[in-house]
Amino acid sequence: xPAGPAPAFGLYLGSGRLRGRHEAALTWPSxxxxxxDFRLPRDRDEAVRQIRALHERARAGEAAEVACGGGVGxxxxxxxxxxxxxxxxxxxxxxxxxxxxxxRAVETPWQRRWVAGFPHSGLPx
Length: 125
Known about the structure:
Blueprint: E1 9-14, H1 16-22, E2 30-34, H2 44-59, E3 64-67, H3 73-85, H4 90-100, H5 109-116
Parallel strand pairs: 1-2, 1-3
């Protein structure tokens, strides 16, 4: 685990293998989404629910983190979705994530399309 304070909650994105390597070391509540590298989450509805829940935790002041294997594509996709939930227009969310998270955030065309259509906070939960 990287140095630094532990979060109060973690949303983790990856395969069963990634989960198997890291889950035992987590000492805080967490949720894992089955999200293959360079792809989209296998259960997109569940991913939307969990991203919204992560956003609500962060808005409430909770120390929450999101992570994947490399911290760029999948994590960047969630960062862009969180930006949408915070009011950034979907058409600008990838650029926002690249400026504020990582220059290569949201790596694939299908990840970019998913962010562009991500349900924003005005939709029913």
